[in-house]
Here is the input.
Amino acid sequence: MSGVTFWPPEASAAAARVDVIVIALLLISTAIVLLVGGLILGFSIRYRRGSNAQRGQLPEFIQKEVEVGWTAGTLFLALFLFGWASITVLTAEKPQADALEIHIEARQWMWKARHPDGAREINTLHLPAGEPVRLLMQSQDVIHSFFVPAFREKQDVLPGRITQLSFTPTEEGEFSLFCAEYCGTLHSRMGGKVVVMKPEDYARWRAAQPQEDDQSKEGEALFRTVGCSGCHAPASPVHAPSLAGLYGRLVNLADGRTVRADEAYLRDSILQPRRDIAAGYAPIMPTFAGILREDELQKILAYLMSLRREGGS
Here is the structure.
């Protein structure tokens, strides 16, 4: 959206819930300021120099009941607000299996986006309205933060680690994109725009972009090149876990724990294979730390995650 507005538009499914919390905080803060300010003003007038107001020791109920009540009320209000905000965040949109998955790469001082079919763009992100989106993001240098005020969504983007952001854009238009974490001398210029389009317009836009092999296809080639398929292929003589449908599944470990095979688990399994050993398997997998570059690791992770959707290996 162009121009300066007092309140950004609500352009995502989560925006209204966040706005309710913000408005409640503003109202509560205003009420407290008015209450405290009124008491200060009233006391200043009543107990001004030369007034006949009674002074001396405060009544017993003020020393105990009022003080305890004010402290307890403040505590319960803080706990209520904390719980409300936490529930809103924890119950926010969960990643959906059919969500549009886009890879975001942050670097000083630009945003790079890569769509499923390989279409790329810089400092601009095209999205379809009304469809769930899942961003997989990573920084190539320092910490950045992906922030779209109209979506009320913000997520740190870290070097050496994939972070994700799931949301559903609901309004068509152009919305400002910012980096909300100081990242260097040109931090203020690290911005862009998110263009939300009708689904059919988005499909036409994507079809018009130069096509490349997507991340998962490149990852499949790397999977074979570096030798992963030698152990994890169905016909392999090596007793290694099957990777078909692994992503998102619960995995029983040799030490009795159960973990979910998310991106962090897959990454650790490649770089630190002896950290979480699957039950029933010997710890024979070598580490690929120092062998795979970060971009290559991302491609293999994209391939492993795609096996869940494709249901194959």
Observations:
- The mean pLDDT is 85.
